[in-house]
UniProtKB/TrEMBL annotation:
GO biological process assignments: arginyl-tRNA aminoacylation
Family to which this protein belongs: Belongs to the class-I aminoacyl-tRNA synthetase family.
PANTHER family, A to Z: ARGININE--TRNA LIGASE, CYTOPLASMIC, ARGINYL-TRNA SYNTHETASE
Gene3D superfamilies for the chain: Arginyl tRNA synthetase N-terminal domain, HUPs, Isoleucyl-tRNA Synthetase, Domain 1
SMART domains for the chain: Arg_tRNA_synt_N, DALR_1
Annotated ranges, domain DALR anticodon binding: 470-585
UniProt organism field: Phormidesmis priestleyi
Protein's gene: argS
Name recorded for this polypeptide: Arginine--tRNA ligase
Statement: the UniProt record of this protein carries the keyword Electron transport: no
UniProt subunit comment: Monomer.
Length: 585
RNA sequence: GGAUCCUUAGCUCAGUUGGAUAGAGCAACCGCCUUCUAAGCGGUCGGUCACAGGUUCGAGCCCUGUAGGAUCCGCCA
């Protein structure tokens, strides 16, 4: 199925070439959707921009372009308005035909990327010795969404979690495991059934109260890095324990199963080469015993170039070294065409530095795209970084459980008010899907780069740009299918658009491909949220004004197809956001 | 001292390569359920796009400066 925008673009370009010569064959026609329906559906703004080079007035240019346009199969005759806008209004038959081919496509007529790229998508990088907290919410939700979008568009996606699995906090857990479960059998059992949070709390307690334990923990780190077999065994147990705990939360959040964990331990063998290769490029400088690369455009208080330390004076490596090793691995071993880094905006300096060093070392080929997608902080309602009462980061589990509990209360109240009775399993499922969906949607629906204020009341609002509103729109469509006992998939699409609200909905349905391209390019999930919110609104208007099941044929079938396309678009869109739909709620 | 991001309606936010009259939601107020779930729809109210210059046929968007806010800055990640 052809994209209307691209199709029209090509035709305006052809008209440009016809009017002003072959040089204009590839000229950007500045074709965009109109922001006001009275100007039609699309407008070309190119005439104004050509006024100066062609030394003519824009309206005359627009007229010349219009004379060469061949668009009668798609649009009404184009009109010229204002200073020189060329306006296009799509023909009804064209819209109907587009809807029919969309209906017959199992991916709603959305084309796959050509050529597909190998894309690495970042997932959260927690220190896995600790329980997941609110700081991991955004990278999980955003990473999952970006991965699903580029995957749907046909790219080969590798999901990577750059976990912290080698540092000091591990010494504490290893020492605790060895102390509390000296018997290997018991240790194995504890790591397959225990809770990471409990483990961490108890280990921390021991660490704070006992000097001997503290020393044991330090020794454990040293032994671990020296490759001591027993300690390595204990370390593996702790990693397993973490993985299980993390998976539980990821499952609750519907985060992909196929994430690859590559942490500090994974990159250990590659760290020395980072230093030796940097040395070869001549970028490496020794300063106060540390190996550094002096940066361009980053200065200290005295205006001197700032170093990026890649090897500490004690010979140890740090996060810059690991990030450089990871970048190299992704390019050389994974053969990535595009690497999507998504971290909190506080690390943008750090990544700008990493990218600079990698580029200056010529480690990044021309055709590899390093996409940096920073995100803002999660704030509490006081406008400050979200913290628990005790000042610690809020555990993610608590945050999500609270959202589910609040949703459950809402659902129960509504059921009582409507005198409906539903099973406990039904209520719990709705509470989970709506509650988790609301948390994710609240995060994704805002511009990624800005900080956002976490508010249960706002995200669980049944009205407005929220997950519940959209999930309800989906439920309404499914209700029509149930009530009318219509199998949407079996419909023979013969479209017949009549009412204004049908046209509005139809035109919106046909623009999902543009939105996904936009998300792929800009890495802004809120564009997709905006699209889905508008789709829900437009469907609700259609639902309000156009009876479906009672309508006479052929209108009835046509409207049923509209319902089906809306349902499938909502379902796909929400899926790409990582949100599950419900049939009833 | 430097770097990055931000400042749009009372509140929370959109605003797509610069395009026609700057948009939503919430809150407030007024309407609409014998008809597919009213968790819905329609309407009213609400703006010096932080400020000042500049570029342009055209600026919320690009450039410069100012004010305010957030985050980060040599051996933590």
């Amino acid at each position: 199925m052809k994209s209307t925008l691209n199709d029209l673009k090509n035709r305006v370009q052809a008209a440009l070439a016809g009017a002003f010569g072959a040089d204009y064959r590839d000229h950007d026609p500045l074709l965009v959707s109109t922001n006001n329906p009275k100007f039609g559906d699309y407008q070309a703004n190119v005439a104004m921009s050509l006024a100066k080079p062609l030394k003519s007035n824009p309206r005359a240019i627009a007229t010349q372009i219009a004379e060469h346009l061949k668009v009668s199969d798609i649009c009404e005759p184009p009109s010229i308005a204002g200073p020189g806008f060329i306006n296009f209004k799509l023909k009804t038959e064209y819209l109907e035909a587009q809807l029919e081919s969309m209906h017959s496509s199992d991916r709603l007529g959305i084309a796959t990327a050509e050529p597909p790229q190998k894309i690495i998508v970042d997932y959260p990088s927690p220190n896995i010795a600790k329980e997941m907290h609110v700081g991991h919410l955004r990278p999980a939700v955003i990473g999952e969404c970006l991965a699903r979008v580029v995957e749907f568009l046909g790219h080969d996606v590798q999901k990577v979690s750059h976990i912290g699995d080698w540092g000091t906090p591990f010494g504490m857990l290893i020492a605790y495991l060895q102390e509390a479960y000296p018997d290997p059998q018991a240790a194995a059992e504890a790591s397959t059934s225990g809770e990471l949070a409990t483990f961490y709390r108890q280990a921390k307690k021991r660490f704070d109260e006992d000097e001997v334990f503290k020393e044991n923990a330090r020794q454990a780190v040293v032994k671990l890095q020296a490759g001591d077999t027993e300690v390595l065994e204990a370390w593996k147990r702790v990693c397993q324990l973490s993985k299980r705990s993390y998976r539980k939360i990821y499952d609750l959040l519907s985060i992909s199963q196929d994430i690859v964990d590559r942490g500090e331990s994974f990159y250990n063998p590659f760290l020395p080469a980072v230093i030796t290769d940097l040395k070869e490029t001549g970028l490496l400088v020794e300063d106060n015993g540390a190996q550094c690369v002096f940066l361009e455009g980053f200065t200290n208080k005295d205006g001197e170039a700032l170093p990026m330390i890649v090897q500490k004076s004690n010979g140890g490596y740090n996060y810059s070294t690991t990030d450089l090793a990871a970048l190299r691995y992704r390019i050389n071993e994974d053969q990535a065409d595009r690497i999507i880094y998504s971290t909190d905006a506080g690390q943008s300096n750090h990544f700008a530095q990493i990218f600079q060093v990698a580029r200056r070392a010529s480690w990044v080929p021309e055709n590899v795209d390093l996409s940096y997608a920073p995100f803002g902080l999660v704030l509490g309602e006081d406008g400050k970084r979200l913290k628990s009462r005790s000042g610690e980061a809020v555990p993610l589990k608590e945050l999500l459980d609270e959202a589910i509990a609040r949703t459950r209360t809402d659902v129960e109240n509504r059921l009582t008010a409507e005198e409906r009775t539903e099973s406990d399993a039904f209520i719990q499922n709705v509470a989970e899907k709506v509650g988790i969906g609301a948390v994710k949607y609240a995060d994704l629906s805002q511009n990624r780069v800005s900080d956002y204020t976490f508010s249960y009341d706002r995200m669980l609002d049944l009205k407005g740009n929220t997950a519940p509103y959209m999930l309800y729109a989906y439920v309404r469509v499914r209700g029509i299918s149930r009530k009318g006992e219509v199998d949407f998939a079996q419909l023979d699409a013969q479209m017949k658009l009549t009412e204004e609200s049908e046209f509005i909905l139809a035109k919106h349905l046909l623009q999902m491909d543009l939105v996904l391209d936009d998300v792929e390019r800009e890495l802004l999930p809120n564009r997709l949220c905006q699209y889905l919110f508008e789709l829900s609104q437009k469907f609700n208007q259609f639902y309000d004004r156009c009876p479906v099941l009672q309508a006479p044929e052929p209108i009835r079938t046509s409207r049923l197809v509209m319902c089906d396309l809306t349902a499938r678009s909502l379902k796909l869109g929400l899926f790409l956001l990582g949100i599950d739909v419900l049939e009833r709620m």
